[in-house]
Amino acid sequence: MLGPYRWNGSPSRWQIFQTGLHSLPLPQQRAVLLELCSYDGEFKNGRPPEGELTRLRGMLLSAGTPGAHAAQESLQKLEDWEAVNRSWQAALTKVQDDPDGAITATRTTIESVCKHICDERGVKYEDGWDLARLYKATSSAMQVAPDQHSEQIIKQILSGAATLVGGLAAMRNALSDAHGRGKRSVGPAPRHAKLAVNAGFAIAGFLIDTHVEKPPVSS
């Protein structure tokens, strides 16, 4: 792929790696680095810390979806949130090649975030609740529901967040792989998936940040 290499007067291995990586198109660069992040063989100088690998993997997967990257640090502070992490990574990995699945995974991520927060704050909910009702219970538990604020600009922003959640649920029902399609149906494009992921992860990130910054009071 890189052609012959002369070893006399050789640069460092890192320089060789950089040269080879930069010779590839950006999508292939990300694919190579993601594959290296998942490498489970032997390392000459020891395996990098798992936290650093997770951070790098998140940065690579969130290319084009800054909403996901912005909330990644807060998510890493939370223990036993494997279900959220799984749907989070699924949404990011599917944006380009499986827009349907990315939209579904984004909706699942928001739902999982809400349920995890409710569980940790002792808020009861039912599995049959729709996403809008689940989001309302979650936001109310952290005092970020629109009707809990009197300042107009804050109330407007929080109302917009609630409206966005409803829109994402509708988008998932209309465009994702959650339902079958007829012959003439057109699936979502990657740009639709990016819109859903960025919007959905902005909401998920807001909930996670609030949960971390305003931890539940121990009874």
Unreliable stretches? none
Relative helix content: 55-70%
Report the β-strand fraction as a percent range.
under 5%
Tally of separate helices: 9
Q: What is the distance, rounded to the nearest whole angstrom, between the alpha carbons of the first and last residues?
A: 62 Å
What average pLDDT do the residues reach? 81
Assembly category: single chain
Counting helices, strands and paired strands, the structural category is mainly alpha
Q: Major sheet, described briefly?
A: none
The shape, in one word, is globular
Rg over CA atoms, rounded to whole Å, is: 21 Å
Total number of beta strands: 0
The arrangement of helices and strands along the chain is HHHHHHHHH
Organism: Micrococcus luteus
InterPro entries: Abi-like_C
Protein name: Abortive infection protein-like C-terminal domain-containing protein
Give a written overview of the molecule.
InterPro entries: Abi-like_C. Residues 133-209 form the Abortive infection protein-like C-terminal domain. 63% of the residues lie in helices and 0% in strands. The protein has helices at 13-22, 26-37, 50-61, 66-76, 82-94, 99-120, 131-141, 152-175, 190-213. α7 (131-141) packs antiparallel against α8. It is globular, with a radius of gyration of 21 Å. The model has no long low-confidence stretch (mean pLDDT 81).
Q: Which descriptors apply to this entry?
A:
219 residues; mainly alpha; 9 helices; globular
